[in-house]
Amino acid sequence: MADTFADLDRYVNDNRARFEADLKQLVEIPTVSMDPDHKPDIRRGADAAASVLRACGADARVVQTAGNPVVIGELKTDPRHPWLTVYNHMDVQPADEPEWKSEPFKMQIRDGKYVGRGSTDDKGPGLTALYAARYAHQHGVPLNIRFLWELEEEIGSPSFEGMVKSELAKLKSNSVLVSDTIWIAKGRPAVPYGLRGVQGVTIRLTTGAKNTHSGLTGGPARNPVAEIAGLVARMLDTKTGKVKIPGFYEDVRPLGKKERDSFAAAGFNTARYKAAHELTSLRFDDPIEIMKRIWALPTLEVHGISGGYHGPGVKTVVPAWAEAKISCRLVPDMKAAKVLQLIRAFTRKHLPDAKVTAEHHLDWFLGEISGPHAAAATTALRFGFGRAPAFTREGGSIGAVVTMVRYLKCPLVMIGLSLPEHGYHAPNENYDWGQASGGMKTFVKYFSEVSKIA
């Protein structure tokens, strides 16, 4: 163990071309989980991922679930050594935005950047962890490492829990590492210890059998687009973002002092945040308030209102129906079922003939910001990137996290490598060699540190 890190810099540099070739292979398979037309690509992606694991010395198998498969790979040392499970996902978002500057499923390498859908979310970080595990395994780190690579994360992990339950006897773990999160900024590592949950809903109002001529029906006819818009306006203060549904904030757990202090020390910068996400304006500019809003408070977001005419010019119709797509991000100690009930009750009161349909939901997660695994993460990131991380939360949701905590019953740490400018879910998504190379060093150090935890 004394010489564990002696060859690490050379290993990382020598394996750059191989890493890029493997990443290119994975990125160029369009594993879009929400599109049924990509089912064959999902299977191709799973098989390719298993091949990459085997090429790095792991035993690998593709486990079929009720939905998309899960790829499981293992690098074993000794049954007496602890088991670390490393989670990533190999499915991706669609890539149909017109802003793409190159083919999203033809990975481009530009000045050390890897441009392509899935490069940072989450194929690049997953491959980074694998290359680190290969080095650790070859250099005698006394740790068994298991990879769980999911192919349904982007659609809420509907089959992951069933897979974990059926494979539970084979998934014994002393701890879990997840690498599917984002830093505060380049050069500012972050270890998120919490995730928000989510409850999605569709609200639909139908007032006729077809669109009608506004010159003949405008006035007496109800306008469902206007009524849905009115309902949404009642739900949400658009200037502040405050949700106006009675009881919505009732179960929100207040931030503790240690968490507030950690947020304050995170180095969050409002201008950088706006630039990274290409936002031209915000509701407020105070960094602490922004962090609280995206990490520790719930939201109600309107993703789209449809109905009526959307083509060029103005077609003078009264719509026959309208639909709003809405989701609420949830924080400790909110319950998705209660939030759904509140939305239904509010809609019944203000628009009684609208239909509320529950969509997917995920629970929130809250881990620890201290203890041996948090200390190992701090040591590892300082080793890999020269700076200790901030302990933060994340505003998004990862369904598999809650499932693994529930069934594997062990500590879970999140060490992500993505940056805001990498463009999660956005056109021109990218990953970069700086994060990959530093990430390999970070993970090797983390594997070494957790191997010592009893």
What does this structure look like?
By secondary structure, this protein is an alpha+beta fold. The chain has 2 domains: 275 residues, Zn peptidases (Aminopeptidase), CATH 3.40.630; 122 residues, Alpha-Beta Plaits, CATH 3.30.70. It contains 14 helices and 18 strands. The strands form 5 sheets. The chain has a 6-stranded mixed sheet, sandwiched between helices. The longest helix has 20 residues. It is globular.
Report how far apart the termini are.
Answer: 17 Å
Tell me the total number of β-strands.
Answer: 18
Residue share in helices? 25-40%
Biggest beta-sheet profile: 6 strands, mixed
> Which stretches of 5+ consecutive residues score pLDDT under 50?
none
CATH architectural type of the largest domain? 3-Layer(aba) Sandwich
The fourth-level CATH homologous superfamily of the largest domain is Zn peptidases
Helix count?
14
Please identify the structural class as seen in this structure.
alpha+beta
**Per the principal axes of the C-alpha atoms, what is the gross shape?**
globular
Average pLDDT:
96
Order of strands across the biggest sheet? 1-2-6-3-7-17
What's the CATH class of the largest domain, please? Alpha Beta
Tell me the Rg in angstroms.
23 Å
